[in-house]
Write a structure and sequence with these properties.
Blueprint (H helix, E strand, L loop, with lengths): L1 E2 H8 L2 E2 L7 E2 L10 H4 L12 E3 L1 H9 L2 H11 L7 E3 L7 H9 L4 E3 L4 H16 L2 E5 L1 E5 L2 E7 L5 H10 L3 E4 L2 E8 L2 E5 L7 E4 L3 E4 H5 L7 E3 L2 E7 L15 E4 L2 E10 L5 H16 L4 H16 L3 H6 L1
Parallel strand pairs: 4-5, 5-6, 9-16, 16-18
Antiparallel strand pairs: 1-3, 2-6, 7-11, 8-9, 8-10, 11-12, 12-15, 13-14, 17-18
Helix pairs in contact: 7-9
């Protein structure tokens, strides 16, 4: 669901018709350019999408005879259209405004080029209709990597995030992370507006990260690239010591690499998170330290194996 007033504000549009508080039930992150409909072809008409009029469509509208244009617009606005946007600062013919007002369809003007507006509109709609979920976690940006820190309450998530901030990294969300899926392989996390830039530290209370550490210590949103799950150290439990097997967690249908990190006194979790972020970046570039060590061991083993000629000499 997309609110008309929020759509207008987010995309910097100017309203030509009476104000509206309409809410549109849009399910596809796309727009429609109604050039074919203006020519009379209505098969496969995506009327449920925002209608974008560019220079080509506007030139055709202005070239039509008034009576023909009126008949065309009457049929065009018989569909349940959410809105009409005229790009490049162009003003539509008065009869288009009249039909739109009668049907309570808002007509906007964008000063941007048609291509620029279409890209911005698709990105905005995609963010608004993307599947969403809320997680109890910390989200920080570490060396350009979005790290989601999860774990039970009291395990040290906020303290780890605070130490990372002191080391020059950025906080995205504390305690509550709103996650949306913007593509089949990408998640974006952000903080709810009410608690944005704030952090809760047990024994101290609420602190304002932006006021304490500056604007560079916070970020509005970040892609979620890596999940680090903190858990209390369990004696006898086997933890990964080589890193040669990748583990994943699925959030909103997207598989994200996950590391399970045990917590015990004396472990500097902030440094571990930093190293994990750097190691993730190396893996994305194709370098895996565990695989490299395995190659060296294999090469050393092959060098020490006796050759066939050596065996025959015995």
């Amino acid at each position: 669901m997309i609110e008309a007033q929020e759509f207008q504000k987010a995309l910097g549009l100017r309203l030509l018709t009476p104000p509206t508080d309409a809410v549109w039930d849009i399910h596809a992150a796309d727009v429609n350019r109604p050039g074919m409909q203006f020519c009379g072809f209505y098969e496969y008409f995506a009327f449920e999408r925002p209608q974008v009029i560019g220079k080509v469509e506007m030139t055709y509208l202005n070239s039509m005879e008034p009576e023909a244009r009126t008949n065309m617009l009457r049929k065009y606005f018989s569909y349940d259209i959410p809105c009409v946007i005229c790009c490049r600062g162009m003003l539509p013919p008065p009869d288009l405004i009249t039909f739109a007002s009668e049907r309570n369809v808002p007509v906007y003007v964008s000063e941007n080029s048609t291509t620029k507006f279409v890209l911005d509109a698709i990105m905005y709609i995609n963010r608004k209709i993307a599947p969403r979920v809320t997680r109890h976690a910390e989200l920080v940006e570490v060396h350009g990597v979005g790290v989601l820190i999860t774990g039970d309450s009291g395990v040290g998530k906020s303290e780890t995030a605070l130490e990372l901030i002191k080391r020059g990294h950025a906080l995205v969300a504390d305690d509550v992370v709103d996650i949306c899926r913007v593509s089949e392989t990408r998640l974006i996390g952000e903080s709810p507006a009410m608690i944005r830039h704030f952090m809760e530290i047990r024994g101290m209370g609420i602190i304002d990260i932006r006021s304490m550490y500056g604007i560079s210590a916070v970020a509005l949103s970040k892609s979620i690239d890596l999940v680090i799950h903190l858990e209390q150290w369990v004696e006898g439990k086997e933890y990964d010591r080589l890193g040669d097997k990748d583990e994943y967690i699925t959030i909103l249908g997207v598989r994200i690499p996950q590391l399970i990190t045990p917590v015990r006194p004396g472990r500097n979790l902030a440094i571990i998170v930093e190293v994990a972020a750097r190691n993730y970046s190396l893996k994305r570039l194709g370098y895996n330290a565990a695989h490299e060590l395995d190659k060296r061991l294999s090469a050393m083993y092959d060098e020490r194996l006796p050759t066939e000629s050596t065996i025959n000499n015995y």
